[in-house]
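User: Good morning. I'm curious how manganese (II) ion would be positioned relative to this chain. Could you predict the structure with it bound?
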Amino acid sequence: MTKTVLLIEDNEQNRYLTTFLLERHGYTVISAPDGMSGIELANHCAPDIILLDIQLPRLDGYAVARALRQLGKLEQVPIIAVTSYAMVGDREKTLTAGCNGYIEKPINPDTFVSEIEQFLRGQRPAHEAS
Ligand code: MN
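Assistant: Good morning! Here's the predicted structure, ligand included:
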């Protein structure tokens, strides 16, 4: 069955590349350019996984992750932070906010989809993600 990825990302080029890579591998991608519409979509579209940019206008990714985790029906849905923050402390912050792991920006087109697949299979616990 086709898996649905919710992508919350304000940068249009990043949205384009991520969507392109995932659709090429058969995923359905729905995307939101900001946190509020991302939360709205998450509530209505039952995504299989959520990719969350941390640097977002207004509501940042940490706040979005916390809000998503308040939605009971998303309890089992992996939330993966996509972040260019190099600091270990910032990564920890994404996990504390409710994310299951993180992927570094800029994304690597050669490994990105297999990273997502590992998260979908639950084979990539947060403490091993990098
Ligand atoms: Mn951003």
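The chain has one domain: 4-128. The longest strand covers residues 4-8.
Let me know if you'd like a different ligand tried.
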